[in-house]
Each structure stands twice: as C-alpha cells, then as structure tokens.
User: What shape does this take?
Amino acid sequence: MRKVVRTDKAPQPVGPYSQAIVHNGTVYVAGQGPTNVATGQTPATVAEQTRQVLLNIQAILEAAGTSLSYAVRMGVFLKDRDDFAEMNAVYAEFFPNEPPARTTVEAHPPANIHVEIDCVAALPE
Assistant: This one.
C-alpha cells in the first residue's frame, strides 16, 4: 500500500514531491522548511525556524494518522553547523524522552533558510 499524504496545515510542495508517503505502516515525510502556512512568513532565527519546521512535520504526521511520538528517524539539514546548539535546544523540547534516531549535517537548502528537517515515523498499531 502506498498513499500520498497532503494537508493544508503545512507548506505545499514546491516541486514534484509529496509532503509525505505512507507505505507498509511507515510515514516518510519530505524535507520541510520553516514557512508558517497561516502567515506565509518564514521566522528569522534558527530557533524559530526549527520550531516551525517541527510544527509543520507534526501537522503532516497528524494528517497521516500518527504523531512526533512515533518518529523513528529525523534528518536535520543546517545551513551553518554553528547553529547546531540553537537548533538542538528547540529540537529537545519536541523530544524530551526517547528521541528518534537523528542525523544532522551542514547543507545548503534550496531556499534561503537556516534549517530543513525530514522524518520517518511509524503508524500506531
């Protein structure tokens, strides 16, 4: 089973990809940026962008029938590795206990943003 997930509560894809795909009980969320869909704005700081990205992922996971508590892997892409501590402090607020596996790398997102995150999560049984 392969199902496309789409929600208006997170930024819409700007290219040929889906917000997320559900396949065999797993949700694969595409890399998400920090656009706030309610305002159309992108927050300024790394901390604010990290929070918005995780809220966007949370909205997509909820549309798929799961939540951040079922996240098993996260990929964090930072424009500048010097932003790690600021990103990590906000990230820890979303995963206070038993966080998912994670990779964090310095990258150059396609837009002028500080952070992009993708996610793999399980569906509740």
